[in-house]
Amino acid sequence: MKNKDKGQRNTKETLKKAAVTVGKVFVRLLAVVLSVVIAALVTLMGAIYIISKSDSDVVKELFVTSMVDTGALDFCAHMFLSDEEVNEILAKNQIVVPEGKTNTTLIVIGEKEKDPVKEKEDEEKDKANGIVYNEQGVCVIDIKGKTYVGKALIVKDPSRVKVAGLAKYGEGIVGKTTEQMAKEANALAATNAGGYREMSDYRTGGIPEGRDSSGLVIIDGELKWGSKSATYEVIGFDNDNVLHIDNMTGEEALRIGIRDAVNWGPVLVKNGEPCVVPTTGSNIGFHPRTAIGQRADGSVILVVIDGRQAHSVGASYTDLVEIFMRYEAVNAANLDGGMSSYMYYDGEVITRPYMLYFSGRRTVATSIIVTKLEDGD
């Protein structure tokens, strides 16, 4: 019996010593990991400080505009620079948009009397650019540049392009993924649309926002979010299915018959003229992008670019302008990008979304959807 008790005591002492040893190893390992993390953070903070205080305007402007452009890393731009300094840099790097409102007469939808010669020429030109509509009246094109790959979806009938959103917006509300919105609407295709407030717990999408922190959502002619008196960068279709890309108040948007709209930017093509893109700041940076445009015949172009990945670094604003001019857009504007950017088509996601530090698709405030052609349409 004594030997048995002695053996049990020895076992307990052995286990206790082992536990102490494991504990010491764990503490040491934790200390090493914390030291590495702290060293990395100090190094990162030092790098941000050096860049923020750099004498090189090019380096500083590229850093600030790129951080603001990402959305999730916006705070980095403000670490060592005042709001006034950041705003000054952003203003300096704004894209120059041709003056005047959207000229709706440049868009002619469903022209009754068509010139057969011109129609044939347009068809041949479209084919040369890979535009051949399928039985659903859409065309999906693989697009590729020096730094990017992505998809362009061209929809022949603009009345099928709409904004999908939430039943309710506000504090405590969580958005839905673009894929969820598409499936709930039984849509053929969809992309993300406007911006939304970033939340620390990633339960985003409940509060729509534009580039200037305000937010506007119009669905089926009803103001779902925003103010009638505030001015927004409006990207939306009117009741004649013409795309508008203008600064206007919520009241003006409703008055001119905007049926579906979000707000974001910048404008890329206005009334057939490409916008002037400064060769500094994030304008020359490469990111995941989503954008929308409309051609003279009313057909709508949706573009999604993969970015921040090995297979595709991303596209600049200049790249987007070139894409829309290639496909003869009369008007075009940038939508929200980054981790929100992807394209859904015929039951699956056909681009490769960039995901930085959490799993699952981002919940968003709004999406652009394309309705299906039903039998007999």
Q: What does this 3D model show about the protein?
A:
With 377 residues, the chain is of the alpha+beta class. The protein folds into 2 domains: 2-92, no CATH class; 104-370, no CATH class. The protein is 31% helix and 24% strand. The strands form 4 sheets. Strands 1-2-15-14-16-12-13 form a 7-stranded antiparallel β-sheet, covered by helices on one side. A hairpin with a 4-residue loop joins strand 14 and strand 15. The mean pLDDT is 87.
What is the secondary structure topology, with strand pairs?
Elements lengths: L1 H51 L4 H14 L3 H5 L4 H10 L23 H13 L9 E7 L4 E7 L5 E4 L13 H7 L4 E4 L2 E2 L11 E2 L7 E3 L2 E4 L5 E8 L4 E7 H6 L2 E6 L3 E4 L2 E2 L14 E7 L4 E6 L11 H10 L2 E7 L7 E3 L2 E2 L17 E4 L7
Count of folded domains = 2
Briefly note the structural class of the backbone: alpha+beta
Distance between the termini: 92 Å
Strand content: 15-25%
Largest sheet: 7 strands, antiparallel
Number of strands: 19
Task: State the helix count.
Answer: 8
Key features of this structure:
alpha+beta, 31% helix, single chain, 8 helices, 377 residues
Quick structural summary:
With 377 residues, this protein is α+β, with helices and mostly antiparallel strands. It contains eight helices and 19 strands. It folds into two domains: 2-92, no CATH class; 104-370, no CATH class.
